[in-house]
Design brief:
The protein is of the alpha+beta class. It is 28% helix and 27% strand. Strand 11 and strand 12 form a beta hairpin.
């Protein structure tokens, strides 16, 4: 018996081993899917849409070959289409059978520029004559191929999709096969040793044949049953058989109308404007530009990556440092590490990104607010706001989803974003008794306490003069992104104006510190007009919420001082 079992196990192991080997060889899929196209290049750009990128599973490796330099960029398809605009380009699409690629020329009057270095690209690769880049198909991934953006793009393009081959079933079959083979060998060895002990196989003496035994009362009835009982059994079986046939045939008396099945529907939202790798590259570039401008004291070095209030404050401080080289440099713009990311979820422009970078040893992390004005423009730093001690940013959507952009005149918030400087400024001037003050958390607002106290001190110190305060919107580009609770994070610039005029004949207004340095004199007999810029970060809850408006961060800088 053991010998038969051993033989059976041996045969089973052979089958398992052959199946495992076959899965690795004969039945193994090809190493990859490969599609190529060669066409007469004439347009400066070649666009490979997401439909072509996702033709097969996996992320394809795109290789482009041309007579000159080759540049390949990966990005969201809608971003590539927006960047190319109405410029002449070619598109690579599969044919109807999806077995070949075809190039289609799309003419247009738009201007051609170099795509190198655009902030829209998730990844890029440049090389001479041949370049390769693996492009992710997720999140609408597509590819743009060019030479230098002016001459014709490469005309030889190849896409290779890797095929993932899972070796686990093959390994499992081979493992079980070897295990069964070992077990068969062990049983065979045991059987051999048992035979050696008995010195040969044991044989049993067969018994003599015996005739059949007759068992009375056990023979089956040979005559068929008759009478009413048999009739009842037949009558019972016929309806039952008919019922079974009717059920199996689907009740051929009629075709019932199909019942509609409800299908799930979903609303597709716009994806975030950047992925992590894009943002890291952008912030790295901004940090390098800021470091270069700070080292040279040249505002012109900032214009490629700075705009709005951030550029205005740094430009004004550079002019002060040129007057006094002993002035300390401004706190540098840190590009990393990134501790908070909130990109807008949008396919339109302008686009906004909020990010917090917290450099080691820095007591106050900075909120960097970036704005991209158009597809071919770079992200520029509009606001760099130092977060206040103990400031808590409310819950926001994760970076992989992005936040809904909020219009600067949105009325579903407790305070309209572009009216924040006017409303907040009136509270600073008139105190907590202002009707709008109930919407703000003034008890924990250190900036409000300091600036309102400073204004009161100036008023009390002026014996022969009068001072007027003003608080206005510093930039029309108010950046606002929705939070998880329906509110918004709002970055806005407020211009604080101080106009001081003498009230007594022969008296003058004196200034000190940075105001004296910028004015170039210690005072003026006609009066002084000073302007400060406040880059503010607010949390503004939605209308009807019990939360209050909170100031989360502020960066203040002197813009100008002049005689009245």
């Amino acid at each position: 018996m053991r010998l038969l079992i051993a033989i059976g196990l041996f045969m089973l192991s052979l089958v398992l081993l052959m199946l495992g080997i076959a899965q690795r060889t004969v039945w193994a899929p090809p190493a990859n899917y490969k599609l190529a196209v060669e066409f007469e290049a004439g347009n400066p750009y070649v666009v490979i849409p997401n439909a072509t990128i996702s033709l097969h599973e996996g992320d394809p490796l795109i290789t482009a070959t041309g007579p000159r330099n080759v540049y390949i960029a990966a990005a969201r398809e809608s971003d590539i289409v927006a960047w190319v605009g109405d410029t002449s380009h070619s598109t690579i699409d599969p044919n109807k059978s999806k077995t070949k690629l075809e190039a289609t020329s799309v003419p247009g009057p738009g201007a051609a520029i170099s795509p190198v270095g655009s902030d829209l690209w998730r990844a890029s690769e440049a090389s001479s004559k041949t370049a390769s880049l693996r492009v992710e198909s997720e999140l609408g991934g597509a590819a743009l191929i060019a030479s230098d953006g002016v001459v014709a793009a490469p005309g030889q393009i190849e896409l290779v999709w890797p095929i993932a081959f899972d070796l686990f079933p093959s390994n499992l079959l081979l493992g079980i096969g070897f295990g069964v083979l070992v077990l068969a060998l062990v049983l065979n060895l045991i059987n051999y040793r048992s035979m050696r002990k008995r010195r040969g196989p044991s044989r049993k003496v067969p018994k003599a044949p015996q005739g059949p035994k007759l068992r009375l009362g056990k023979q089956p009835r040979m005559a068929p049953p008759r009478g009413r009982r048999a009739a009842r059994k037949v009558a019972y079986a016929l309806p039952t058989g008919a019922l079974v046939v009717a059920l199996l045939s689907g009740c051929a008396t009629g075709n019932p109308e199909p019942t509609p099945t409800p299908t799930a529907t979903g609303v597709l939202s716009d994806p975030p404007v950047v992925v992590r790798s894009q943002l890291e590259h952008v912030l790295e570039q901004i940090a390098l530009v800021a470091a270069d401008g700070d080292a040279k004291n040249q505002a012109s070095a900032l214009t490629t990556r700075f705009a709005g209030p951030a550029l205005e404050q740094r430009t004004a401080y550079y002019s002060l440092r040129k007057l006094d080289s002993k002035l300390a440099a401004l706190p540098k713009i840190a590009g990393k590490p990134i501790t908070f990311v909130l990109p807008a979820a949008s396919s339109l422009w302008p686009r906004t990104i909020m990010a917090v970078t917290d450099e080691a040893g820095d007591a106050s992390p900075q909120m960097l607010v970036l704005i991209q004005s158009s597809p071919r423009a770079q992200y520029k730093l509009w606001y760099n706001i130092r977060l206040m001690q103990g400031a808590s940013i409310p819950a926001v959507p994760v970076a992989e989803i992005g936040a809904i952009p909020v219009a600067s005149d949105a009325k579903f918030l407790k305070v309209i974003p572009n009216e924040l400087p006017k409303v907040y400024g009136s509270i600073i001037d008139n105190g907590a008794g202002t009707p709008a003050a109930g919407n703000f958390d003034l008890a924990n607002d250190e900036f409000f306490k300091q600036i309102s106290q400073s204004q009161d001190t100036q008023v009390a110190a002026l014996k022969n003069g009068r001072i007027n305060f003003s608080h206005t919107l510093g930039s029309p580009n108010v950046a606002a992104l929705a939070t998880a609770d329906g509110g918004a994070l709002v970055a806005v610039a407020m211009i604080d104006g101080y106009t001081i005029r003498p009230t007594k004949q022969g008296s003058a207004i004196t200034v000190t510190g940075l105001e004296k340095l910028m004015l170039g004199a210690s005072g003026s007999a006609s009066g002084i007009v000073s302007r400060y810029s406040d880059m503010l970060l607010f949390y503004v809850p939605q209308t009807g919420s019990e939360d209050t408006v909170r100031v989360l961060g502020v960066t203040q800088g002197l813009l100008s001082v002049r005689s009245r």
